[in-house]
Amino acid sequence: MEKKKIGKILKKNLMTSKNQTIIQSFYPNKLAFFAGSTFFAGCTIVIFHIISNPGDYRGGRIGLFLESPVEIQYLIVLLSLLMTLLPLATLLPNSTYVRITHKGILYKGVMSLFKEKNLSWKVIDDFYIHSVPTHESTKYVKIKFKKTYLPNYAEENLIIYGNPNKVLNIMKGYLKEYSKKDLK
């Protein structure tokens, strides 16, 4: 009787991603997320103050902002507040990561709605360094998928954190090693 229970428990555990052996993990720069959150918190406070005391600010761009409907002004405050809270959510332990296993890549973050997702090595063609068009010095490693695979939004925009050149070499090495094992 106990063997059946243990067998069911083991079978159930093997189906979860928790039992996959983590080879390497990549995490975002938490200090940068905290700094971004602090910046937007300050922006939220300043914008709310401007809306609350419109008599003090009448000239220039702020005057144009104050001429917009009140609903739009408060919408901007709400968006700024959201931009304050979103980076704070990534500071929670195990809320945002990219992990390498022998079966593929596990990832979790804002784009996956903080649910762990799995990408098989079979759907990955290569890795490349992507630079942000508005700020060329900001670079990340991203995934180039096989032409036969249509990635969802979270997979297509998945960023692998760390020094781009080092991470690129690491990821290409793992792809080469584990995609060969998938073929066998």
Helix vs. strand class: alpha+beta
Average pLDDT, rounded to a whole number, is 83
Specify the number of helices.
Answer: 6
Biggest pleated sheet = 4 strands, antiparallel
Q: What would you report as the Rg, rounded to the nearest angstrom?
A: 22 Å
- Gross morphology: elongated
**Uncertain residue segments:** 5-16
The SSE order reads HEHHHEEEEEHH
Q: How many β-strands, per DSSP? A: 6
How would you summarize the topology of this molecule?
Elements: H1 2-14, E1 22-26, H2 30-52, H3 60-67, H4 70-89, E2 97-101, E3 104-108, E4 117-120, E5 124-132, E6 135-145, H5 153-156, H6 164-183
Antiparallel strand pairs: 1-2, 2-3, 3-4, 5-6
Helix pairs in contact: 2-4
Tell me what the structure shows.
The protein is α+β, with helices and mostly antiparallel strands. It has helices spanning 2-14, 30-52, 60-67, 70-89, 153-156, 164-183; strands at residues 22-26, 97-101, 104-108, 117-120, 124-132, 135-145. A four-stranded antiparallel β-sheet has the order 1-2-3-4, with no helix packed on it. The protein has a two-stranded antiparallel ribbon with strand order 5-6. Strand 3 (104-108) and strand 4 form a beta hairpin. The radius of gyration is 22 Å and the shape is elongated. The two termini are 38 Å apart. Mean pLDDT is 83; it is low at 5-16.
